[in-house]
Amino acid sequence: MSDWAATVRARVGTFLLDVALEGRGTVALVGPNGSGKTTLLRALLGAIPAEAATFTLAGRALAELSVEERRIGYVPQGSGLFPHLDVLGNVTFGRPGAAAAAVELLDELGCGHLRSRRVYDLSGGERQRVALARALLAQPDMLLLDEPLAALDAITRRQVRALLRDRLAAFGRPVVLVTHDVRDIEALAERVWVLEKGSVVQQGTLAELRAAPADVFVTELVAD
Q: Which of 10, 19, 60, 119 could bond to 50 as cystine, CB 3.0-4.6 Å?
């Protein structure tokens, strides 16, 4: 049984996204550049209009709801932090009275000591942890992560990947993780969707993809 299910048909310029999906736990979303991964996340978030869509999450119908009403956390590429605010201001943005909970969450993520720092004084790994804290503080019903480890150096990537693995296990709600790294899939995801030219061409466990890759892209991805 799935935690959520969606059908989305959305057009961005000349690009058409047309998918039908069911998800449970943490799912990795992979595909070549330009395949529609970020577009799909933004469609689930409600940030782009759809020509046709259905979306249920934990029994709630979301397709007609606004971004705010959907209760979905989103960490975009590059973290999306506000440069004019310090760390605590970023995490509590739009949530007055949440400072104590924010500090506790930052401590859990290993960056509580950064609460007064400005964004431009943070490393890439620190920014990603702060962005994750901001998304989690809202206690969303679902979490969308768009290449959260892509901009990190190898050492920081391993550290943040381990932290993210533990945090997602504690989160206990559906997650869609965009990645190009099979090590992220191995550590974080239970299933994989392969998106190409706006359509899902294969889905399954990593072992299933390795046993019967749909095409050259999948073959090269799982061989890393």
A: 10
